[in-house]
Design brief:
Elements (H helix, E strand, L loop, with lengths): L1 E5 L3 H13 L3 E5 L2 H10 L4 E5 L7 H10 L6 E6 L3 H9 L4 E5 L3 H16 L5 E4 L2 E4 L4 E4 L2 E2 L4 H12 L4 E2 L1 H8 L8 H14 L5 E6 L3 E6 L5
Parallel strand pairs: 1-2, 1-3, 3-4, 4-5
Antiparallel strand pairs: 6-7, 7-8, 8-9, 10-12, 11-12
Helix pairs in contact: 2-3, 6-8
Bound molecules: calcium ion.
Calcium ion (CA) binds next to loops.
C-alpha cells in the first residue's frame, strides 16, 4: 500500500511519514502543492493525505486537478479545527474524509485503514491463498486461525506477492511498491525479506518460487503424493 502525504509543515510531515511507515505502508512526501500535483500525474497511490494550506498550489487545487483527471484515489484532507467551510468545500471537490488539526496519530491511522478498506472494497480487502489470509486494511496475516508475526516490510512484500498470485513478480516491481524515494534498499534486501517469509511460511501450504532471471512466483504448493 502506497500513501502520498502532502504537507508543508516539516514536523507534522515527519511524524506522519514515520508513523505510517511503522505500520508497513510505503510513504512518499510532497511539501508543496505543485510537487504533489506533478507526482500524482505519474504515480498511483492507495491514499493521499492532503493538507489544504500549501505553498504554490493549494490543497483544493491539487484535489480538483486530481479528480479532473478522473482519479478515484481516496483522499483525506487535513483542515483547521473550526473551519467548516473548508471541510464542506473539500468534500464537495471529492475528498473522501477529513481530519481536523491537531489530531491524534491513532485516529489518523484508523481513518487511513477505513479509507483504504473502502477504496479496495471493490476487490475485497482480504487476500487469500490456501490457509494464508492477509487483511490489507488491518495489516494482519493469519495462517488458518493462527496469527503470523511479520515485520512491516515482510508484510509489504507478502502483500505484493499475494496480489500477483500465480504470476511472476520481479524485484523492481517489489521495490516500486515497497520503497518511498528516501529509502534506499537494494535487491539484496528483497532477497532477505523473501528468505524470511519462506521460513515463516514453512508450516503453510504456500511456496514462493524463485524464477531465475525473472523474479518470484507465489503459489499453493501441490500436496506430495
Ligand atoms: Ca499547511
Amino acid at each position: 500500500m502506497r500513501i502520498l502525504i502532502v504537507e508543508d509543515d516539516p514536523v507534522l510531515a515527519d511524524g506522519l511519514c514515520h508513523s505510517l511507515q511503522q505500520s508497513g505502508y510505503a510513504v512518499d512526501h510532497a511539501a508543496n502543492g505543485e510537487k504533489a500535483d506533478h507526482i500524482l500525474t505519474i504515480q498511483s497511490y492507495d491514499l493521499v493525505i492532503l493538507d489544504l494550506g500549501l505553498p504554490r498550489l493549494s490543497g483544493f487545487d491539487v484535489l480538483r486537478r486530481l479528480r479532473q483527471r478522473g482519479s478515484q484515489t481516496p483522499v483525506m484532507i487535513l483542515t483547521a479545527r473550526d473551519d467548516v467551510d473548508d471541510r464542506v468545500k473539500g468534500l464537495d471537490l471529492g475528498a473522501d474524509d477529513y481530519l481536523a488539526k491537531p489530531f491524534k496519530l491513532a485516529e489518523l491511522e484508523a481513518r487511513v485503514r477505513a479509507l483504504i478498506r473502502r477504496g479496495q472494497s471493490a476487490n475485497s480487502a482480504q487476500l487469500e491463498l490456501g490457509k494464508l489470509v492477509l487483511d490489507t486494511a488491518a495489516r494482519r496475516v493469519m495462517i488458518g486461525t493462527e496469527p503470523l508475526e511479520l515485520s512491516a516490510r515482510e508484510l509489504a512484500v507478502l502483500e505484493i506477492l499475494m496480489l500477483k498470485t500465480g504470476s511472476v513478480v520481479n524485484k523492481e516491481q517489489i521495490m516500486e511498491r515497497l520503497c518511498s524515494w528516501e529509502d534506499d534498499i537494494g535487491e539484496n534486501a528483497i532477497e532477505v525479506y523473501v528468505h524470511r517469509l519462506r521460513k515463516k511460511l514453512k508450516a503453510c501450504d504456500i511456496q514462493i518460487r524463485t524464477i531465475r532471471g525473472l523474479g518470484y512466483l507465489m503459489e499453493k504448493s501441490e500436496p506430495l503424493l
